[in-house]
Design a protein that fits this description.
Elements: H1 2-11, H2 31-37, H3 63-78, H4 88-91, H5 104-107, H6 109-115, H7 138-141, E1 151-153, E2 159-161, H8 166-172, H9 179-186, H10 208-212, H11 214-217, H12 241-244, H13 286-307, E3 313-315, E4 323-325, E5 335-336, E6 339-340, H14 348-361, H15 366-369, H16 371-388
The chain binds heme C (HEC) (5 copies).
Domain Cytochrome c7-like: 89-174
Organism: Donghicola tyrosinivorans
Protein name: Cytochrome c7-like protein
Length: 400
């Protein structure tokens, strides 16, 4: 159990605050900020690419007013994950020298604009070469062309109508695989027979948008015979990404929540009058029930792969593909030629449960984005595995 909890925590990314970076901003306004901090940043930055002064295209404005406003936005953004250009999310393609076209729409502002045709190219495709070094820059969200993006396609096949900047958030925070990708792989295979052709299917990361849309978004693996709750409408003042997340810092302030929720902190918020995890504890936040059920599900996956598939799995959130083999049952990941051996004894039953587990835990804000839906996914996955390993699941007192 401690390992499972650690894993959950590891999924909530640690913030590395080292700004050893060279940020290439596409947004002209930021030129001035760059010039100011240039010397403190990457010495390899080419000075000639930096525009020292940029005048507004129209005006007149009160210059001091403009400057203060943008400085606040820039410094807020600069501290956020969107600007963290040293992170794996932006450096992954360094060796190749360009961002893979399958990845560019979400891992670079330039790629995002190319994908949506905001640079005048084909809509819905990456046409040009996307250089490495891009981040989620100002021009990703501050782009007049975004107003023409009226719908966003999801990996589940859903096409969802959008307005304004939500088009941007949902483009990138939707994940890359959905339950239907799992269904396609396991369709027709015997449920409990390991199949070496099955590989872990990763929903991808920071999948907030997918969680938020719930059963309607169909990001999870949906078990036959069950209904899944749709989008989490919540309440009008908190109905959009940016009503909770400050768009530059990306942080969520607790005070606005407290107008409706009596809770010390965001993690303590609870409305539900039933305990989902069987603990009977209604004094903790709904987040606690979700984490407990996620830990139970992981324990079930471990027990099932050991007992039914006869090949125990070990989860390690620090490297892809996260699920590894422990065929010799020594409690450590097997290695071959110095490499960790990826788990290759998936059955349809374990694969779909592992997918749901990863989808839920890939979104650290799941309890605020759609607590109902993630509890349903966890519940159904636990029941399915529990029954297969002969556990009296009713006695666990879990609620759906
Ligand atoms: C639909 C948008 C989208 C697409 C397409 C996409 N990614 Fe991502 N990816 C994200 C988001 C959002 C994150 C940020 C997760 C975080 O670090 O919080 C991410 C994170 C990552 C990370 C960092 C994971 C970590 O542990 O920090 C890697 C590596 C990555 N993606 C690789 C890829 C590769 C390779 C491709 C193309 C084959 C790709 N991504 C395509 C949205 C996407
Ligand atoms: C992830 C999307 C996103 C990115 C990236 C982004 N912004 Fe914003 N920005 C917004 C949203 C959303 C608003 C609020 C607009 C509204 O209230 O209608 C906003 C508002 C602003 C405002 C108005 C004042 C304020 O702070 O609310 C300024 C100025 C601004 N942004 C500048 C920038 C600059 C400069 C950058 C790059 C350093 C940047 N933004 C990056 C989404 C973004
Ligand atoms: C072009 C793609 C893109 C767009 C558009 C985008 N994001 Fe992100 N977002 C990312 C990536 C990539 C990361 C992870 C960066 C990292 O790991 O350094 C991220 C990180 C985040 C994080 C923090 C996650 C963490 O690991 O700390 C939040 C919160 C977030 N985005 C919310 C939003 C919201 C809200 C919007 C819309 C206003 C938005 N994003 C628009 C790609 C995008
Ligand atoms: C009801 C408020 C609310 C709404 C609406 C909301 N979020 Fe969140 N989000 C949260 C909370 C709370 C967290 C947990 C992290 C925290 O406490 O800061 C979170 C976490 C995240 C994270 C992970 C941050 C991390 O630390 O890794 C991302 C990414 C994210 N949200 C994106 C979005 C996107 C995109 C949307 C719109 C589809 C959205 N959120 C809508 C409240 C909200
Ligand atoms: C205008 C009132 C209002 C505000 C403001 C508000 N909420 Fe809520 N919240 C609700 C209502 C109503 C529900 C129940 C919704 C439902 O179940 O459909 C709820 C449910 C929740 C739940 C699920 C609780 C459970 O036990 O299922 C979480 C988590 C939550 N809100 C987080 C937040 C966060 C985080 C914020 C601030 C960013 C916030 N809320 C702001 C009204 C609000």
């Amino acid at each position: 159990m401690p390992r499972l909890l650690e894993t959950l925590r590891a999924a909530q990314k640690t913030f590395s605050r080292k700004f050893a970076i060279c940020i290439v901003l596409s947004c002209a306004i930021t030129g001035a900020a760059n010039a100011q901090s240039e010397s403190a940043q990457d010495p390899a930055a080419e000075p000639e690419t930096i525009t020292p002064f940029v005048l507004p295209k129209s005006g007149p404005f009160e210059p001091s007013g403009i400057k203060i406003e943008n400085n606040a936005a820039i410094s807020d953004w600069f501290r956020s994950a969107h600007a963290r250009s040293a992170d794996e999310a932006f450096r992954h393609w360094d060796e190749e020298g360009e961002v893979d076209e399958r990845c560019a729409s979400c891992h670079s502002g330039e790629g995002f604009r190319d994908f949506h045709g905001l640079d005048g190219t084909t809509v819905g495709a990456i046409d040009g070469t996307i250089d490495t070094g891009g981040v989620v820059d100002c021009g990703t969200c501050h782009n007049a062309g975004l107003a023409d993006v009226r719908e966003i396609s999801f990996p589940s096949g859903l096409v969802h109508p959008v307005t304004g900047v939500e088009a941007a958030c949902l483009t990138c925070h939707q994940g890359r695989n959905a339950g239907r990708d799992v269904s396609a792989k396991i369709d027709g295979l015997p449920l409990d027979t390991p199949d070496a052709s099955l590989r872990f299917i990763n929903p991808h990361y920071a999948t907030a948008g997918a969680t938020w849309l719930g059963g309607y978004g169909a990001a999870g693996y949906h078990y036959d015979g069950h209904e899944y709750s749709g989008r989490f409408f919540h309440a009008r003042p908190v109905a959009t990404c940016n009503s909770c997340h400050e768009p530059h810092t990306l942080e969520v302030a607790a005070e606005p929540c407290q107008t409706c929720h009596l809770a010390e902190s965001i993690a303590d918020i609870r409305i539900a009058r039933q305990s989902y995890d069987g603990s009977g504890n209604l004094r903790v936040g709904i987040k606690s029930d979700i984490e407990a059920n996620a830990a139970t599900l992981m324990a079930m996956i471990e027990a099932y792969t050991d007992q039914v598939a006869d090949s125990p799995v070990i989860y390690d959130g620090s490297h892809y593909p996260y699920f590894f083999a422990d065929q010799n049952r020594d409690g450590a990941i097997d290695t071959a030629d110095g490499q960790s051996v990826a788990y290759a004894s998936w059955t349809p039953r374990s694969l779909r449960a592992a997918f749901n587990w990863k989808l839920v835990t890939a979104d650290p804000g799941n309890f605020a984005h759609n607590p109902v839906y993630v509890l349903e996914l966890l519940h159904d996955s636990i029941m399915d595995l529990g029954t297969a390993i002969g556990i009296d699941v009713e006695k666990m007192n879990l609620r759906r």
